Amino acid sequence: MRTVAPETLTDMLLSLSGPDTDPRVQEVLSALVRHLHSFAKEVGLTHDEWRKGLELLTRAGEISDGERNEFVLFSDVLGLSSLVDMINSPKGCTSSSVLGPFHILGAPPLPVGGDMIGDNEGPQVVVQGHVRDQNGAPIAGAVIELWQTADNGLYSGQDPEQPEYNLRLAMTTGADGRYAVSTIRPAPYMVPTDGPAGDILNATGRHAWRPSHLHFIVQAPGYRSLVTEVFPSDDPYLDEDAVFGVRSDLVMEYKPGERASLAPDIAARDRLDDDFSLVDFDFVLPPA
Predict the structure, then answer these.
(1) Which of 40, 43, 59, 154 is most exposed, with the fewest beta carbons within 10 Å of its own?
(2) Under DSSP, is residue 5 helix (H, G, I), strand (E, B) or coil?
(3) What is the pLDDT of residues 232-285, one digit of tens each?
(4) Global pTM value
(5) What is the C-alpha separation between 285 and 106, in angstroms, rounded?
(6) How far does CA 113 lie from the centroid of its chain?
(7) Both 18 and 116 in a single domain?
(8) 104 and 232 in one domain?
(9) End-to-end CA distance of the chain
(10) Smallest Cα–Cα separation from 285: which of 183, 210, 179, 180?
């Protein structure tokens, strides 16, 4: 170690891995170390800048809890989440998109056609579609998690005025692979800027706005799980998403709804406003 130098440190560190190291672990960590060391040398990283980076990570840990994950937000605003999604999205299937920092486990079950509007204000919409395989066949028993913002642009867990698990559900498809729910249109919102991820946005003059969207996780035995978002075509931030989550196949259309055309299992059909909208969106899953 007495001969360690900027030119030798990287290879010296990587040579310390033991013979039982998993090959994939070695590949990933080796690349990470090489890029980190190259980054530090390229920019001539100072002690103050190094400490500032550690402070950002420390603050991210302090601000993260069961309802907000600042490390996920870091990954989102730096484009890493979307890059990983795009690398791992198989062709011919629904694209992955960012999980976001506000997913909460344990969403309450809701039957197909169930109502999620409740006491929520905002334009009403029925969202429906099917979960299919790559051959177009319906997937029975797929579990869909859906979560979204309220009309004020906040998620339950962020907003103390919202009930626990407001505008969150878990729904299981039947033999026809169909899902359907009545809800409200989510609102565009700004990602949190009160933490270290916000510091990065502010330091680089970037806005924090996201287009409105519905979050989905779709899982079925024998198929790869899908984490994604669906965005309306008329949103003003569709091409300016702060976390790069929009994909062309994830854009939906809000169409004027017709009560007479709704399926009988839409629980809120007789309570919907006359100007409610309808969204049809299918998900295609690849085999596991």
Answers:
(1) 43
(2) coil
(3) 999 999 999 999 999 999 999 999 999 999 999 999 999 999 999 999 999 999
(4) 0.86
(5) 23
(6) 24
(7) no
(8) yes
(9) 46
(10) 179
